[in-house]
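Re-run with default settings, no changes from the original entry. Doing this only to confirm the output is reproducible before filing.
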Amino acid sequence: MNIRFLAAILATCIVTTPAQAASFDEQFPEFARSAPQEIRDLIGGLDYKTGPQTVGDNLATINVKDGYYFLDAKDAAHVLTTVWGNPKGPQTLGMIFPDEKNPLQSDWGLEITYDDIGYVSDEDAAEYDYSELLTQMQADIRAGNPWRLENGYPAMSLVGWAADPKYDVEGRKLYWAQELNFEGSQRNTLNYNVRVLGRRGVLVMNFIASIDQLPVVNDALSDVLSMAEFTEGNRYADFDPSIDTVAAVGIGGLIAGKVLAKTGFLAAGLILLKKFWFIALLPLLVLKNRIFGRRDS
């Protein structure tokens, strides 16, 4: 058989692998057998999806790999607000989790949103001094603490890079991690960010996890980076300078969060509120400890 013909057949098989959805009982059979009704009410109605998932209005595809599952926009919003107790934020496109744990057990979850800020030029990606950028970001966060305190949020500080910023020129994907400290918290917070650059904006992908989960998140990073792609017509290469808008910031601006007041701070807030959720729902926490076994606070 012609080798090229065989390769084409194999490629078609990969591309056309159907998306699938599992129920709570199918995805977590052992856990589901002993789950109390309170847990079923929270996460029993979610669809745990695998395979290629289209998000937005045919904006992008999330090719969910083996070892993970995907929650669509509706189910992800339910987890973020009802299960984890966060206020409504930017419209979520979905979430990714490791498939061995449900949203109540998982060490991390990855939220996906979209920011239509325009085409982000990456021409100066190699020119940034990330040490200098970090110093400026730390000053910006300190300057914002009076507002946070006045509005009932704890003061926060940027401890440093948990992972240095890196930019994949071929994939047009930017990723970095910050270690944050919230006043009064004994454990620092991990804010791990991924940005996929597109024709009219960026996919915003944020890991929600504690700093202790950094090794686990690092292990999942390459898989996550390979899952998200813009669809044809929305890709970075599809940019048309005659009709498309250019963003007011470049790569450094994305990292510094100059246009991410609605996403960068929210990502940190989501992590913080996820912790508060366990305090607010102490009766469920007791049930959780009975089912999952005792875990570190």
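The longest strand covers residues 156-168. The radius of gyration is 20 Å.
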